[in-house]
Structure formats: C-alpha cells, structure tokens
C-alpha cells in the first residue's frame, strides 16, 4: 500500500461511531499536552475526542479528500494533518502515544514500525481485528523477543460490529501497548 496508495475499493472505510470513539479515547488515558498519532484518521472520529482531551494530534490519512476534510474540520485545533501512507510513517522524535483505528490490512506493518528499536512510543491503543489482538497478547506476535523487554500488551475495550458504519465482517477490540522501561 505505498506509492499511489491502496487499490480502488481497498480504503478500509469503517468509521467509528462517535460514542465508541469517545470510549476508546477515554480508556487510553490521554492527558493534556500529550502528542498523539491518529493513524488512518478518516474524517476524525477519534481526532475529535483526542482534541477534547487536550492532546496535540497528528492525524495521518492517505485518502486525499479525507485529508482535506480533516484539515478543514480541525483548522482551529491543535491538529496537524499529514497526508501519508501509514506504511511509510515517520515516527516523532519525542515521546508519543497512538490512538487509532487503522485499516486492518496494514496493522502488522504499523505495529512493527511503532515497536521498532528507536521508537519513542509511550503507549498505543489500536482498534484492530480481535483475532489480531489475541495474537499480540498471547505471545504469538512478530518480533516479540525483541520488543517484549520494553512493552506490555493487553486487550482493552471489545467493540461490537455495530460500533462501525458499515459494520465489518469481523469482531474488533483495542490492542493496548504500554512501555514498561526507559
Ligand atoms: C477503518 S477507517 C477508520 C477511520 C477513522 N479512524 C474512524 O475511526 O472513523 C481507516 C482509515 O485509514 C485510511 N487509510 C487506508 N489506507 C491507509 C494508509 N496506507 N495510510 C494511511 N491511511 C490509510 C482510510 O482512508 C480510512 O480513512
């Protein structure tokens, strides 16, 4: 999914209902002034409650029209909209959190990047396919030997299919990642 972007029809368009988005952000424990990446921000379902929580948000969105709409919607808020492919994401050089409902197709690539050796990731709350979350919490995740010294993984809120429009064909949950050292 790099270069000209995903193939037509592969844009992973399952926006979160605003009440569920608020719950995900509340559970993430974001504090005023935190730098938070919303990867695959769509039209800002998570960006809006992140702004209300006082975060400085970087909203990453590849779709050109969605990125434009995000810019307009959050023109007066502490939100930087970056039109970029999450697969090529440049991580901040200062500590940051991630609260995101990314397209499921890029979740493994995104997680590898967030947990890479020089990452300043403090915590991540990612809405993902429940099967994928289970894999990351029960010890079957890629590269675990390397990153498990620094990070704990756990399962957060379980989201019903009706938390999205249109409902996806799979169950979802929040994968919580928290730095334990450094
Ligand atoms: C599942 S939707 C979630 C949208 C929003 N976060 C929400 O919860 O309503 C995923 C979003 O990721 C965007 N997207 C798809 N592929 C992407 C990529 N490679 N890099 C960045 N964003 C991407 C889609 O355009 C879509 O807006």
From TrEMBL:
SMART domains per record: rADc
Family: Belongs to the class I-like SAM-binding methyltransferase superfamily. rRNA adenine N(6)-methyltransferase family.
The protein's name in its UniProt record: Ribosomal RNA adenine methylase transferase
UniProt keyword annotation of Lyase present: no
Entry GO MF terms: RNA binding; rRNA (adenine-N6,N6-)-dimethyltransferase activity
Organism, scientific name: Kribbella flavida (strain DSM 17836 / JCM 10339 / NBRC 14399)
Binding sites annotated in the UniProt record for S-adenosyl-L-methionine: 40, 61, 85, 101
Claim: Protease is one of the keywords in the record: no
Domain Ribosomal RNA adenine methylase transferase N-terminal: 20-181
UniProt keywords, alphabetically: Methyltransferase, RNA-binding, S-adenosyl-L-methionine, Transferase
InterPro entries per UniProt: KsgA/Erm (IPR001737), rRNA_Ade_methylase_Trfase_N (IPR020598), SAM-dependent_MTases_sf (IPR029063)
One Pfam family named in its UniProt record: RrnaAD
Domain of life assignment: Bacteria
